[in-house]
Specification:
The structure is a homodimer of 220-residue chains. The first copy, chain A, has 220 residues and is mainly α. Chain A has a single domain, classed as Methane Monooxygenase Hydroxylase, Chain G, domain 1 (Up-down Bundle), CATH 1.20.58.220.
Chain lengths: 220, 220
């Protein structure tokens, strides 16, 4: 394994971390704008997403070149395969942040529905899942990755609660239908962000241990 | 390029087509069950999805082994990278079919909302996009892949219409809120299926031409 090999591998990991940092920023802007009703924050989400999309293509290109030139094996090959998938997840996470920004802007143009406590709780959890998934990736920390899988259950539970509460709200106050539907859609976006963080965690476990824990395939 | 190389590559392509066939079947069952109000069709969706999940892991394993042993270059390497991504898309398409099955079952337990004409139109389009994306993959047909990208715009338009119409319906008839929300969620699932077919089409263009047309990067 020569210096060129290690330097290119580090470069790819560092590109993923930069992209992950952008996703964290986009999510922060989207959530903060939503909670504090500051619609200018949504504009930043769109700007950051453009950078994520550019990086998305660059990372794929870097992986293709690395595979062609360096022919990595064993753990290094698992890492590159995982990077190809994590790259896709990060790009889709950017899309979800943009969806929150679009829906959030719609929401601000309608009747506010008071405190969105469960949505805020969901976003705190998802924010932590995203951060932890990137920390787990950089440290190849299988233990932390497994904790993310557990957090996802709580995100799913909260999404179910938001769906139920806001459907009931619509039935009681049909004039709020559009605002309530926005809240439901944002809960769905947050759930999807949690799913993507879970995918990254599963990839980290695969890189670190060689175990494919997807679809209940955990042998621990 | 030896016979072993070609045989393994064919095997991987054939695994993707089998998986794609399962996705088509799952989608058919979900849509037919929904339109003809036959909830037993939803059960088949769950059974097919289990097979998709098993294949998902097998395809990734086959790609990893192929990369490690055969060290493909140029177009063959682009094909394997695309297969890794298409594999993920197909698995997520299975998830979307399962989501339709769950929501469809809920929908049947509530007040029916009459003909779901736009949802049916969406499903016809999405069904064609999925079939065409797999045909384009097997034939490396860039032209067909480009047609899929255009169909996606119509799917998005119809989803917007379903969202608008059924939100208005909720405001007029709040007692139908749950059923109408089910329809909205199924429209979202169909839209996502269209997005995944679009991803596959973009990958086909990349394999065939080396051009990365994602994020508006089309140089044609």
């Amino acid at each position: 394994m020569n210096r060129q090999f290690l330097s290119e591998l580090d470069q790819i990991k560092s590109q993923i971390l930069t992209m992950g940092g952008c996703v964290e920023q986009a999510l922060d802007h989207a959530i903060q704008a939503l909670i504090h009703r500051q619609s200018h924050g949504f504009q930043s989400v769109h700007e950051i997403e453009k950078k994520i999309n550019t990086d998305h293509k660059l990372v794929d290109e870097a992986c293709l070149n690395f595979l062609a030139k360096q022919g990595p094996k064993a753990k290094d090959l698992r890492l590159i395969m995982s990077v190809i998938k994590i790259n896709t997840d990060l790009e889709r996470m950017g899309d979800q942040c943009v969806n929150i920004a679009y829906t959030g802007r719609d929401y601000f143009s309608r009747t506010a529905l008071g405190e969105l406590r469960d949505l805020e709780l969901m976003s705190i959890l998802v924010r932590k899942m995203v951060k932890d998934s990137l920390d787990a990736f950089v440290r190849e920390d299988e233990k932390l990755a497994r904790e993310i899988l557990l957090m996802d259950d709580e995100v799913d539970r909260l999404k179910g609660k938001v769906f139920k509460d806001f459907t009931a709200h619509i039935q009681k106050s049909p004039q709020d239908a559009e605002s309530a539907l926005d809240v439901i859609l944002i809960a769905r976006n947050l759930e999807r962000l949690g799913d993507h963080a879970t995918n990254i965690a599963e990839d980290v476990i695969f890189v670190a241990s060689g175990k494919d824990v997807r679809h209940g395939g955990d042998q621990q």
